[in-house]
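Project outcomes to date are best conveyed with an example. Our students and postdoctoral researchers have been running inverse folding experiments weekly, and each run begins with a structure described purely in tokens. The record below, which covers 349 residues, was selected by the lab manager from last quarter's runs and is presented without edits.
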């Protein structure tokens, strides 16, 4: 038997010829792509948070103040939920006795799934409004809003596309766009996180009421969030001479305060309006109060007697005009679902 040293082995295969890659048009610009990849990796390693959107800038202040919640006269909202997944509910809203708006009735409906949100309503005069949100992915959302009225000039359609990156938000809107002469209002905004606390962005308005007339305006904004997210400050400057600053702070789990300052310095008007507000969330009630530099003091109390019944009392006093108004309302919720279908524990027998 031959020893191992005496064995012969086949010669190794010849090396493979080098593969010649075809010349590419993008080879001259590949350094730019490589630089962008390095920049994207560096930005991702920073761990910058998502800044939110320009539309929701100062949403905490708006939720604390009463500007979007105050009412007068009497109102009633009755809601019935037919299913939770998908969500489907209808609402009947009544309002009368207001000093500022005539009596009205509105019927609304909501249908929602994880990817689609539909909302529509019609009032007693036949005015119809609706909105649809379609989420193509966790970052890409398309939105459509429409309003149709019997009054001339009150019809509106808005198309919107929003993309939310890891540390930025890009949004584009078109209001009453015309594909024939490109008239309408076009809005674009961008908000970018530069640090873990600071986000800076802009919003541009391009208005084209007629093919011969157009106007472009850009506003700049900033948002600063504390490390513990217990307070947020925002600022926005418009080229027309309007500057807005807001501040919101969460004092405790149940108490929030907010301040808003708007400075107007235009050739036609020079003014400043300051607003202070607070919100108290109790165990079965929510109380909001607000005072501004125009002499208005307002308050809103929402008392929840049961999970399906709430009573509201609102009031506002205008000291400069020596006027006052009061509003009362009820919110009633009904459902045909069982406690198990609503995700609530059933009562013990």
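After processing, the design step wrote out the following sequence:
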């Amino acid at each position: 038997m031959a020893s191992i040293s005496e064995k012969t082995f086949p010669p190794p295969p010849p090396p493979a010829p080098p593969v010649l890659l075809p010349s590419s048009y993008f080879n001259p610009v590949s350094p730019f792509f490589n630089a962008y990849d390095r920049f994207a990796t560096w930005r991702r390693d920073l761990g910058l948070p998502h800044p939110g959107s320009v539309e929701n800038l100062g949403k905490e202040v708006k939720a604390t103040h009463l500007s979007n919640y105050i009412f007068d006269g009497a109102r009633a909202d009755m809601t019935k939920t037919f299913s939770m997944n998908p969500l489907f509910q209808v609402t009947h809203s009544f309002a009368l006795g207001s000093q500022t708006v005539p009596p009205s009735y509105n019927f609304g409906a909501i249908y929602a799934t994880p990817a689609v949100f539909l909302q529509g309503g019609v009032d007693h005069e036949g005015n119809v409004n609706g909105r649809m949100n379609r989420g193509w992915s966790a970052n890409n959302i398309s939105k459509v809003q429409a309003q149709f009225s019997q009054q001339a000039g009150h019809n509106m359609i808005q198309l919107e596309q929003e993309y939310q990156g890891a540390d930025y938000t890009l949004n584009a809107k078109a209001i009453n766009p015309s594909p024939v002469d490109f008239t309408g209002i076009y809005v674009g905004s961008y908000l970018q996180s530069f640090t873990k606390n600071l986000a800076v962005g802009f919003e541009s308005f391009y208005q084209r009421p007629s093919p011969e007339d157009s106007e472009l305006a850009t506003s700049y904004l900033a948002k600063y969030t504390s490390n513990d997210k217990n307070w947020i400050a925002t600022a926005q400057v418009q080229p027309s001479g309007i500057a807005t600053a807001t501040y919101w702070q969460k004092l405790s789990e149940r108490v929030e305060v907010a301040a808003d300052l708007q400075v107007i310095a235009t050739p036609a008007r020079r003014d400043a309006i300051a607003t202070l507000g607070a919100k108290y969330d109790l165990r079965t009630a929510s109380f909001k109060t607000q005072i501004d530099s125009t002499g208005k003091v307002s308050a809103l109390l929402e008392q929840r007697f049961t999970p399906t019944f709430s009573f509201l009392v609102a009031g506002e006093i205008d000291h400069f005009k020596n006027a006052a108004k009061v509003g009362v309302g009820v919110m009633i919720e009904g459902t045909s679902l069982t406690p198990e279908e609503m995700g609530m524990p059933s009562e013990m027998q």
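Residues 1-7 have pLDDT under 50 and may be disordered. The first strand starts at residue 73 and ends at 84. The training component of this project remains on track.
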